[in-house]
């Protein structure tokens, strides 16, 4: 995959806001609470997609780490970190995300420093209204399956 494709996608996912609250779902995985896994709809022919959560909260007494993810909809799933570098949004793959005890880590799109799951080599486009499973792998909590909802961000929640 070319870097400029990834940048274009990063920009695209950054342009929308997300309306919270209306329809929320969450996953409990051991001491972790994964709030509202969702993915942006993709255009026909797009080979990559991105999945987000409102947040992952660690309600336990010990730190945990998100160390991987996989899904049937894509050949591989990478953990990506977004960062703003000279006003250019960039993303890079990271091996894990720290989930300190008692903290909530956000995976929302449109954040200058946020995480998301990159769905690499999509087998079919993600359509609004679809749901698909993603298996999340944590060091302590183990593996849990998240139900990811495909939904477009609402323009009225635009924050840029
Ligand atoms: Cu990415």
| Number of H- or I-type helical stretches | 1
Distance between the termini: 28 Å
Total domain units:
1
Secondary-structure element pattern, one letter each: HEEEEEEEEEEEE
Low-pLDDT segments? 8-22, 156-160
Alpha-beta content class: mainly beta
Radius of gyration, CA atoms, in whole angstroms: 15 Å
Strand content: over 45%
The CATH superfamily is PCu(A)C copper chaperone
In this entry the ligands are:
copper (II) ion
> In this structure, how is the largest beta sheet organized?
12 strands, mixed
- What best-fitting shape do the alpha-carbon axes yield? globular
CATH topology: Immunoglobulin-like
User: Quick one: how many beta strands?
Assistant: 12
Which terms summarize this structure?
160 residues, mainly beta, twelve-stranded mixed beta sheet, 12 strands, globular, disordered C terminus
């Amino acid at each position: 995959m070319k870097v400029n494709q990834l940048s274009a996608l990063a920009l695209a996912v950054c342009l929308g806001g997300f309306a919270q609250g209306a329809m929320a779902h969450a996953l409990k995985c051991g001491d972790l609470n994964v709030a509202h896994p969702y993915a942006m709809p993709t255009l026909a022919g797009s080979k990559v997609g991105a999945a987000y959560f409102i947040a992952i909260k660690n309600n336990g007494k010990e730190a945990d780490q998100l160390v991987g993810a996989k899904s049937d909809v894509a050949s591989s799933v990478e953990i990506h970190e977004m960062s703003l570098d000279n006003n250019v949004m960039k993303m890079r793959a990271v091996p894990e995300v720290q989930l300190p005890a008692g903290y909530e880590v956000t995976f929302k799109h449109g954040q200058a420093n946020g995480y998301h799951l990159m769905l690499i080599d999509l087998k079919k486009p993600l359509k609004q209204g679809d749901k698909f499973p993603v298996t999340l792998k944590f060091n302590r909590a183990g593996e849990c399956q998240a139900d990811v909802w495909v939904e477009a961000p609402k323009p009225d929640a635009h924050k840029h």
